Amino acid sequence: MESLFDAAAEDATPQPLAVRMRPRTLDEVIGQRHLLGPGTPLRRLVESEAPMSLFLWGPPGTGKTTLAYVVSNVTKRRFVEISAVSAGVKDVRAAIDNARRELGMSGRQTVLFVDEVHRFNKAQQDALLPAVENRWVTFIGATTENPFFSVISPLLSRSLLLTLESLTDDDIGAVLRRAVSDERGLGGRGTLAPEALDHLVRLAGGDARRSLTYLEAAALLADDITVEVVEKAVDKAAVRYDRQGDQHYDVISAFIKSMRGSDADAALHYLARMIEAGEDPRFIARRIVIFASEDVGLADPTCLQTAVAAAQAVQLIGLPEGQINLAHAVIHCALAPKSNAVVKAIGAAVGDVRRGLIGQVPGHLRDGHYPGAAKLGHGDGYKYPHDFDHGLVRQDYAPEQVRDRRYYEPTTHGAEGPVAERWAKIRDFLRGA
Fold first, then answer.
1. By the 8 A CB rule, do 99 and 137 touch?
2. 85 conformational bin, left if phi > 0, alpha if psi -120 to 50, beta if neither
3. Domain that holds residue 218
4. Residues with Cβ < 8 Å from 429, sequence gap 6 or more?
5. Keyword set for this entry (predicted)?
6. What are the phi and psi torsion angles at 163 (to 5°)?
7. Shared domain check, 144 and 80
């Protein structure tokens, strides 16, 4: 099969597809609609001759470098890029000195783009302050980390912070279709099958750069790109998984039931299927958090802590590293002793309330702090448990209508065994048994 890039073979160093397809104007940018409308800071920066300092914060592949490049291109400013991974204070100062020299000699302004700016230490960030303060450059810093934790306050306070959102599947699809048809891309010299497009979208995970890299790899193999071509090009099998269809519900159901059945291997299999199919990791994390209380409960109280920590970690670092946190929580949930006593307890209590078993709050439990409450007898007779042995005192807590109802019936599984024994003794004492 003839490659789509045979025509470029004469050029010893052709630019990557992701670079060739980089937007030249703000109107060509796909996604980030909340940042590109009339009157937004980016629009003002493009339309104004005055320098401005920005921080672009967002996940990889959402267009941070692209937006910096577009600002430079549209405003005809010099574009100088520094990577915080490899640059030092000397490089920063040299770039600023060159920008000042250019500004003084020709009046031409410079866009100083610092990628991964959160990797700069305090001294390196301090070196940027004079240029930002005196507006010798239009400074744009890109970061995937929360700048409130990783950027020094003086630099952050002198800049606008713009938050970029992950690209949607529709956005990634639009990026790929444009690359196939645009002369800067594949120029319409081949086809991209709908199933192959869907597979590329899933593989991209919201990262436009990754989607174009995979498309380029597939285009090197064939003009007509199918799922099989994509699989061969990127060495990733297509996972048949429709996030809006039956597969979504079937896989998440099997995932939950595998954890409930304590089969950690099966649960990890379904976790991997969801991740590889591009399922939102936050959705997976939410299901694990629910499971920790619904199916484990007090049989292992630490399970909920692990699940919540995993959800927070996924929110903080995203994929692919976040899959380790999810796996951590899945294994903990699967191997923990199981109890659904908590979900049964709240279900029974809610059921009684919905049936009208409400009743009046006992007078001695009512709030007696506001003016006039004492005259109504609120709080009279309340016994403060801390004044009694073991912190327990016999008095009525529930309304009369549900005084004898039993909601929480713990199992003897895992850590809930001792809880069951303690609750039985407390309940008998409080009820006067």
1. yes
2. alpha
3. 169-234
4. 392, 394
5. ATP-binding, Nucleotide-binding
6. -100, 125
7. yes
CB 134 within 8 A of CB 107: no
Residue 125 CA: distances (Å) to CA of 54, 94, 132, 142, 153: 14, 14, 11, 13, 10
CATH of the domain at 398: 1.10.3710.10
Same domain for 41 and 159? yes
Of 295, 272, 294, residue with least CA distance to 284: 272
Domain boundary among 282, 308, 335: 335
Looking at the structure of the chain, the number of domains it has is 4
Task: Assess whether 184 and 101 both reside in one domain.
Answer: no
Tokens 């800071």 correspond to: 41
C-alpha triplet 334, 336, 338: angle, nearest 5°? 95
Q: In the 3-class helix/strand/coil scheme, how is 241-267 assigned residue by residue?
A: CCCCCHHHHHHHHHHHHHHHCCCHHHH
Report the distance separating Cα 51 and Cα 60, nearest Å.
26
- 322 with 373, same domain: the answer is no
Q: List the pLDDT tens digit at each of the 433 positions of the chain.
A: 334 444 444 444 578 898 899 888 888 888 888 888 888 877 877 777 667 888 999 888 788 988 888 888 888 889 999 998 888 889 999 999 999 999 999 989 999 999 999 999 998 999 999 999 988 999 999 998 889 888 999 999 999 899 998 888 899 999 999 999 999 889 888 899 998 898 888 888 778 888 899 899 899 888 899 988 888 887 755 555 555 545 667 888 899 999 999 999 999 999 998 887 777 888 899 999 999 999 999 999 999 999 999 999 998 888 788 999 999 999 999 999 999 999 999 998 998 888 888 888 887 777 767 666 666 767 778 888 888 888 888 888 888 888 888 888 888 899 888 988 888 888 888 887 6
Last residue of a domain, one of 138, 163, 188: 163
Question: 408 and 306 share a domain?
Answer: no
Are 90 and 41 members of one domain? yes
Q: Can you point out the beta strands (E) in 223-359?
A: 224-225
- CATH assignment of the domain containing 272: 1.20.272.10
Give the global pTM: 0.54
- CA R_g for the chain: 30
Is the domain of 52 the same as that of 149?
yes
